[in-house]
Design goal:
The protein has 317 residues and is of the alpha/beta class. The chain has helices at 55-68, 83-86, 101-121, 201-211, 227-253, 258-273, 279-295, 305-316, and strands at residues 18-23, 26-31, 34-41, 46-49, 73-77, 96-100, 140-142, 145-150, 153-158, 170-173, 178-182, 215-218. A seven-stranded mixed beta sheet has the order 1-2-3-4-5-6-7. The chain has a five-stranded mixed beta sheet with strand order 8-9-10-11-12, with helices on one face. It binds zinc ion. Residues 80, 82, 164, 183, 192 line the site of zinc ion.
Length: 317
């Protein structure tokens, strides 16, 4: 028996927020590995990319936006469906909430279960959770790509491939070579792959690399402010995802059970990635999804609060 609940339950220290200026039109709200929010300021208004987990938490983003512009917040864009990114949306009172069709499909299919699971997994990330009015629903849904002109500023909202989820969406400012990647790229933070497509993810990273971003706001971790750091973020994510999946594939092919594969993968990855934030939180879910994909589940299975606990007991109990 174990007293240990999810690793996240011991993760209680509030993070320091940075509000970085990437250009006249682009800012990033980052918090030492907690989920990031991107901000695009166009001629006619503001776009927020990922909302923070609750409306109360979103108020701090709004406060910082108001220090740099008084333009209206017109758009919220969802990089994917995860609760920790989307449930603060109402605070911005946007005219539109933009998401890919695949993201909408995931909200319909598993949004409610995901919300419950995520809140129980990581309570610190849902400050004032009672302010969440319910699921966040997009009002504009696109397939593959849409172009939005915010005044003179061209904003490309794109799916470049599956990775962290099947709905992954990036926001690209082509004239400034600035990319908001969502959780497809992390920096100094462990990629969460519980809902991922691990075979596809490295290919999607190739497509991201081909954009030639000079600055990049990852899903978690510090803003990457030059091409060298952008490359480091992309390569670090690729290395983790690839090594983790290969380790699990080897174990699965050798007929090992999930617990044994987990122990082996943990030992293989810990020396290199153990210092990345949320490593201990992510790895059980990451290995579980990798084991599924390596064996018999092409698509990620829905996480429920009950399934979370079963997994944690099976691997860490
Ligand atoms: Zn996510």
């Amino acid at each position: 028996m174990t007293e240990k609940k999810f690793a996240s339950h011991a993760d209680l220290v509030e993070k320091k927020v940075s509000f970085d200026k990437l250009s006249e039109h682009a800012y990033a709200y980052t918090a030492e590995g907690d989920p990031n929010t991107g901000i695009v300021i166009g001629g006619d208004g503001v776009m927020v990319i990922d909302t923070q987990a609750t409306p109360v938490m979103a108020q701090d983003v709004i406060r910082r936006i108001r220090e740099v512009t008084d333009k209206p917040i017109r758009y919220v864009t969802l990089s994917h469906y995860h609760a920790v990114r989307v449930l603060g949306a109402t605070a911005y009172q946007p005219q539109h909430i933009i998401a890919s069709r695949d993201t909408l499909d995931l909200i319909v299919e598993r949004g409610a279960e995901d919300m419950k699971s995520e809140i129980e997994r990581f309570p610190r990330l849902f400050r004032a959770v009672e302010s969440v009015p319910g699921l966040t629903w997009p009002t504009i849904v696109f397939e593959r790509r849409m172009t939005l002109w915010m005044g003179e500023l061209r904003v490309e909202i794109m799916q470049v491939g599956r990775g962290h989820t099947k709905g992954d969406t990036v926001v690209w400012l082509p004239d400034e070579k600035i990319l908001f990647s969502g959780d497809l790229v992390e920096y100094g933070a462990t990629p969460y792959t519980g809902d991922a497509y691990l075979t596809d993810w490295p290919v999607t990273l190739d497509a991201i690399e081909a954009l030639g971003a000079e600055k990049l706001v990852p899903g978690r971790g510090a803003s990457l402010m030059n091409p060298r750091d952008v490359r480091a973020g992309i390569e670090g994510t690729r290395a983790f995802v690839t090594e983790m999946f290969e380790s699990v594939q080897r174990g699965a092919e050798a007929g090992m059970d999930l617990r044994s594969v987990y122990k082996e993968t943990y030992a293989a990855l810990h020396p290199r990635y153990g210092h990345w934030v949320i490593f201990y939180h992510c790895l059980p879910f990451d290995v579980s999804r990798a084991y599924d994909e390596a064996t018999r589940y092409r698509d990620p299975r829905i996480w429920t609060a009950e399934r979370d606990k079963e997994l944690w007991d099976a691997l860490e109990g």
